[in-house]
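Review box. Two proteins, two foldings.
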Amino acid sequence: MPEKDFMKFIGKWLIGLLISAPSFSQAKEIRLAVGLALPPYYLSDQQSGLELEIIKESLAYKGHTLTPVFVPFARLIPSLASGFVDAAAPVNEGSGYLAGFYSNSHIRYKNIAVTLKSSNIEIANIADLAGFSIVAFQNATSYLEPHYGEVVQRNSRYSEKSRQDLQIRMLLSKRTDAIVLDEKIFKYFAINQGVNYEAEMALHPIFNSVDYKVIFSDAKLNQDFNAGLDHLKETGRYQAIIDSYLAPDNWFKKVNVTIN
């Protein structure tokens, strides 16, 4: 190839490389509000967690760094709206907040109702919760199916807690008939509290799975995150992060739980 043509080829190749490569010129440090007491999704004492790692690596694809800010679940949207943080998770459009930019779904939660087997409570659907005392996670009526809100709004014995570890304790002490929370969060806290949930508790999978997202105050950050999330999924890294926390061989190692 003549030198002149070779130089043109190299020039075009470099331009193409610059266009296709992640751009770090606008890289930022992102303050992300995340919910307290959400292991294994968020482990505040370790500044890590299944969901946090997915968000962190998705943002890193465009050169952004992440600083998690742990707040009560009810403070996620207010923290973003006040400008205290640049983003918040886990959220979805069910929050009703329209001033931010919702990302593509990066995680799926599966909520359940849990009762004591000794109570012999039959719960086959959401309507069956009516009449029982219930302790749910904070803002559950905003994120679960509309029918759930309709059922519990007439229940004077319904409450929500930001500390989900307390839900299991309240159920065990029979201060409530049922608790409502994510299945993985429930299992984490049950194991951490030395509870043999398979023997003592009945799990009722009456809710649909819920897709959660990150909400950003800036549209460009949202685009960067979505690009990084797509990259994680295309390369297999997304599933590798999930497996590192949820695969049987890794579960107890990640959450620092010792089983006797």
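Next protein.
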Amino acid sequence: MTDKPIVVAAIAGAHGITGEVRLKLFSDDLKAYPTLSGAGRSFTLVSLRPVTNGAVARFAEIADRNAAEALRGTELSVPRSALPPLGEGEYYHIDLIGLPCLADGVVVGTAVLIDDFGAGDVLEIEKPDGKRFMVPVAKAVTIEADRLLIDPEFVE
């Protein structure tokens, strides 16, 4: 497993005049990461509170509204090794993206996206011809370290 940066939030804009920022969250617990990286800088989390559609954060390095607004759109990341360990049967979406997908031992495509529409994770697979199809992870995917095995009944 590489220690590539994993995006856990993005700065949506300034909040107030004292340097707080509105965040779009991609992690359940941002407080688990006291230091985040983004825009070639490190940011130390001082406070975090939930709001509708995200959170408001204060970082030690952002002193005023202008500095906060200048960071709009900045993705905040942590090293992959900083993510909490997984339990049996759990996975991080990022670990599946890019893996080859096989059905009956034949490569049918590459994992490109995972969505959750409310009934569980759905894997989007891109075929060699560029067309894509989707399969439910719980019903049709066996996850291995370096590949995903797809139930042939779900292959289009």
